[in-house]
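Dear colleagues,

As part of the handover before I leave the project, I'm documenting each prediction I ran so the next person doesn't have to rerun anything. This entry is a single chain, and its sequence is reproduced below.
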Amino acid sequence: MNKASLVAYIANKTGLTKKDVTSALDAMIDAVVKTVKGGDTVTLTNFGTFVSVKRKASVKRNPKTGEPVKVPAKSVPRFRPGKNFREVVSK
């Protein structure tokens, strides 16, 4: 499912216009991105949690040449599904 089909689904389910749903979805995504970028978490009950996780610096190998490559430390986004979401998907 892509964004357009998600917008169409939500619009059909709620009776809102696609324009209103698109605006709301864009605002939600923007809020999640800005919050996680700031180091905070976003928890949606019965769905999951968006967090920022710090990766340590490490040394990897270039698979083509075998030479070591230094990978700097960085923060990456993660999603941890909630219990209800995991249970529904596993059935």
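Helices lie at 3-14, 18-37, 83-90. The chain has a mean pLDDT of 95.

All the best with the project,
I.
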